Amino acid sequence: MKHLLTLKELNEHELLSIIQKAIELKKQPDAFFQACYRKGLLMLFQKTSTRTNLSFQSGMNQMGGYCVPMDWESSNFSLSPIQYEVRYASRNCDLIMARLKNHDDVLQLASYSNVPVINGCCDKYHPCQALADFMTIYEVSGTFKDITLTYVGIHNNVANSLIIGCLTLGIKLLLVTPIINDASWDEELMLATRQSGHIQTTENLSEAVSQSDYVYTDTWIDMEHFHEIEYQEEKQRRIQTMMPFQVSRDNLSGHTPYIMHDMPIHPGYEIEEVLIESDTSVIYQQAENRMHAQKALMLHLLQK
Questions:
Q1: d(CA 70, CA 77)
Q2: How many structural domains does the chain have?
Q3: Per-residue pLDDT tens digits of the chain, which is 304 residues long
């Protein structure tokens, strides 16, 4: 049985096929109106969500299926071991999408589920976001050949999934990540990046930007912590460290790469507000593509 837990599960051919299918779905949605007829998607949420929730529900409904959103804390998943709950839950659906706090819990779901499990985001990986990101690059540039992407921000779950995808597709990736989320660190993955030759770590944002077709940033403070009183000291430390690495007109130094951000956005922090709506911003296209990429992913996992 196929799952999507990290993006490592897909080889180059599979990843490219999903991206190309997503573009086809975007162009011809009516051709797939019944592609998931009567198929059910269980959506488990431990973390808040806008894009993951809306895109999966809209995508499955547009293909003739249905969704059952379930809050983890309001269900017995919060009370009983995962292995027992998911054995039951997976008898009532065809797919499970889980947006959870800990990657180990996602692994447990997949280990005991009778149906494919999709990691909708955890502390270590965000493969669904990366699918939309690579779809956007392919849609705009028409190729992955000779593309250079810079990711600037916290080394987090998004960074990990971008790394995996770039390793798979052969995209040159420049990482500008002064702060590392300890929970996100994947030593095996970083060893692979060092051996790859086309993924590099640098502290020089201006130099990275000068080489880049795309510059991608992400929030410096996890959304669930942004307003927490007990997190304010760490929040201020991150802001102080990261402000010199803001995606801004000054740091772009006259270069005009496409600007990417996975949202939600904190303008004035990781990105200068004027760039969000700029001519080179593909942020909303990138966000819209979550739905199309996830439709293609669901078809792939259902072997449609």
A1: 10
A2: 2
A3: 899 999 999 999 999 999 999 999 999 999 999 999 999 999 999 988 999 999 999 999 999 999 999 999 999 999 999 999 999 999 999 999 999 999 999 999 999 999 999 999 999 999 999 999 999 999 999 999 999 999 999 999 999 999 999 999 999 999 999 999 999 999 999 999 999 989 999 999 999 999 999 999 999 987 666 677 877 888 899 999 999 999 999 999 999 999 999 999 999 999 999 999 999 999 999 999 999 999 999 999 999 8
Location of structure tokens 């990429």: 293
Is residue 9 helix, strand or coil?
Answer: coil
Count the neighbouring beta carbons within 10 Å of the beta carbon of residue 220.
22
Q: Give SS3 for 296.
A: helix
| Residues 182 and 227 grouped into a single domain | yes
Say if residues 102 and 122 touch (Cβ distance below 8 Å).
yes
DSSP state of 263: S
pTM of the model: 0.96
Are 279 and 133 in the same domain? yes
Q: Which two tokens stand for residue 38?
A: 């009567």
Q: Is residue 133 a part of any domain in this protein? A: yes
In angstroms, rounded to a whole number, what is the distance separating the alpha carbons of residues 69 and 211? 43
